[in-house]
């Protein structure tokens, strides 16, 4: 509805959709980026490869990306290599 009027012509509907999604998808959203994480106290144990596999299996598809901006579908598509990459990255972060 545009101005409380039902849109019946295809051109009007298309134009209204274009306006709506243009406003919805082109607005800036505030996002906090954290440069440094909070250090933990004491030693931490290394992450095991099996833990990475289990965590990936728990993840759901079609969800918003996290701070890494990598969708879960990418990790699923990479299969074993994706698990290897995540595990190696976790080792580097410890």
Structure description:
The chain is an all-alpha fold and 94 residues long. The protein has a domain at 49-93. It has helices at residues 10-25, 49-58, 72-78, 80-93. The model has no long low-confidence stretch (mean pLDDT 79).
Question: What attributes does this structure have?
Answer:
94 residues; mainly alpha; 4 helices; elongated
List the helices and strands and how they pair.
Blueprint: H1 10-25, H2 49-58, H3 72-78, H4 80-93
Helix pairs in contact: 2-4, 3-4
Q: Number of helix segments?
A: 4
Largest sheet: none
Task: Report how far the terminal alpha carbons are from each other.
Answer: 55 Å
Give the total of beta strands.
Answer: 0
- Quaternary status: single chain
Kindly state the mean pLDDT as a whole number? Answer: 79
Radius of gyration: 22 Å
Overall morphology: elongated
Structural class: mainly alpha
Percentage of residues in DSSP E strands: under 5%
Query: Helix content range of the residues, please?
Result: 40-55%
The string of secondary-structure elements, in order, is HHHH
Instruction: Identify low-pLDDT runs.
Output: none
């Amino acid at each position: 509805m545009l101005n409380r009027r039902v849109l019946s012509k295809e051109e009007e509907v298309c134009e209204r959709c274009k306006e709506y999604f243009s406003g919805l998808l082109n607005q800036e959203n505030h996002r906090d980026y954290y440069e440094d994480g909070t250090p933990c106290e004491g030693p931490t144990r290394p992450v095991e490869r099996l833990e990475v596999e289990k965590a990936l299996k728990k993840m759901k598809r079609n969800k918003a990306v996290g701070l890494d901006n990598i969708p879960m579908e990418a990790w699923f598509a990479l299969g074993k290599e994706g698990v290897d990459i995540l595990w190696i990255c976790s080792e580097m972060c410890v």
